[in-house]
Design brief:
mainly alpha; IML2/TPR_39
Amino acid sequence: MLKDNEISIQTVDVRNIHANRLGPRDQEEADEHVREGMRLVFNNKFMRAKAIFQPHASTEPLYGVALGVIATIKDMNKAISTLASAYTIAKTQIDAASIKRSLKDSLSQYFSSFMVNSSSNELASPVPAPTTITATGATNTTTFLSNGVLRAHVIKAECSLFMALLQLSRENVVDYLKCGLNLRRAHKSYNIVWQEYKRMGQEHTKRMDRDTVSGVQFGIGAINLLVSALPPKILKIFSSFGFTCDKELGLVLLKLCLEGKGIRSPLAAIILLSYYSVLTSLVPQLYSKELAGPAVECLLEAQKSFPSSCFFLYFAAKIARIAGNLPLSLQSFSFAMDASRSEMMEVAMRNVTLYETGWNHALQLDWESAARCFDDLAKEEYSSALCMYAVGACREMLGQRTQGILAFAEVPQHVKKEKEQQQQQQQQQQQPHSASYIESYVYKKVEHFQKSGYQDMDFNLPMLELMCIWNAFEQMEHGALEHCLEIVNSALDRIHERELRELSIRTQELAPSTSPPDYYHHRALILLIKASVLNALQRHGDSIPHLNWIMDNKDDLTSDAAAWIIPFAYWEAGVTSWGLRNYVKSRKLWQQGLACSKYDFEYRMAIRFNLALAKCNDIGIGPTEISTTEKILGMHAQKRAMSIQYPTST
């Protein structure tokens, strides 16, 4: 069993890689084994699929990509290594074919490609293949790249695309940079095939195998969709990306790939469902109603072919949660976990679904069940720093302060261990290490708790704070939100009582040794949570005074632990204005939030702000000019926060 669970690939020997000379129909027949393997993957038969892919992964690139897909959920580093090997094989096939091409063919293809408008992304109807007239009057059809070369370009691009997606999910600056480089490589290769596909016109069915056609649809569609969600703040890291995205083209191409029922059809469904899930989770206030229908349609289409796939059951649970049906979501996550039992993905799928289940329990305010889920995950070393912090947060919400403090005390050890493991992995790959934002956040929160000797825990609501950060209150039921409001008001009362007690000392004692009360950070954080809850309750007007207090006192929110409050307040203020139908004001506030920098979750929030601004564009609300005074005030509020450094564990 342990041997069956291992994913490995032999070292690629480029001397054994030759040009692919198969024609389109022969290639379709040869790829039938890959097609069968992908059917097994999405029917939860992972070990049987691996047995098909692994023996050929060191010589045939499509098998390597398929093996990388299996590795993605099990081991991200193994997946990237497997995809890198497949990339090498595909590139070697291209180089081997190029060596044997004549100079005439090479120049013909080069100038034909040059004449095509490579900047156009329009999905045009097929046109007749171009022809030329010789001096003798004979008609010659234009020379095209061979099917084997086009297929290798698609696979090469696919490897870069999948690596980019994995790197983007890590949420740190170094991996964002690598993601950008891989996206650029992917687009370059896909564009070669895309231009050939358009030049072939109606002849493409004779010159390209159907899975290469669907492969370029998948790739161009996925890149357009991905880049449409990335803000300029992240695209700047990518350095002259040189690509104008078309979201609608991306959706059309991925749906074509899904409906084509080829090798990449279920992968197209995964990309579409991920896109819908990200938008409705990050910005539920703007996208949930609009995208709920398309998400369900995509899921039903995918489940026609793979009704019991653990992947699609997982997305069914995510969609149910977005719709506010938490009992159905819990049931679907349980089904997804059960679907992978006794398979090589059992542990990985269990961890993923248990993590989401923990959040579902938290959304129901079932802190005990949530704590058990996160505790199990911490023991499995699955995002152990975050999960152990969540255990402490749940215990604090239950009033079990001693147990909560013990859990918080373990967080720095988990941060240090995760960092050491990541550094070791990066050193093996000779790449620099960059801490994730969640590691930085939980470390600084615990450090803040410890600085006061945990004496200020009465003014902290750590689990509600996490929900505010994840924008999760929108998925809560009305009764749970009302209970959260009671918890928040009680915390505000405790802050007020502490302030009065400390002020009373100053009325009785001259120059007391204690400092004046300074609870700006605590009050701002609780008011931010309250505003988020009120917005989720559709009581937008009631959130105005609380958000105004945060904005009025932002000069006092310059500590490491408070740096993120200001941009999140801009977000909630934009949501408030949106709920009051003041869309121009919303856009202005979100632009100000996007301008903030050097805080935890900066790039996650940049994506959220960008998606909100894209929605403004869709309804005709264009960019607004921010006044010089507002820019200066914003810079002043952020000037000390900009010096924040990520913590180092000792």
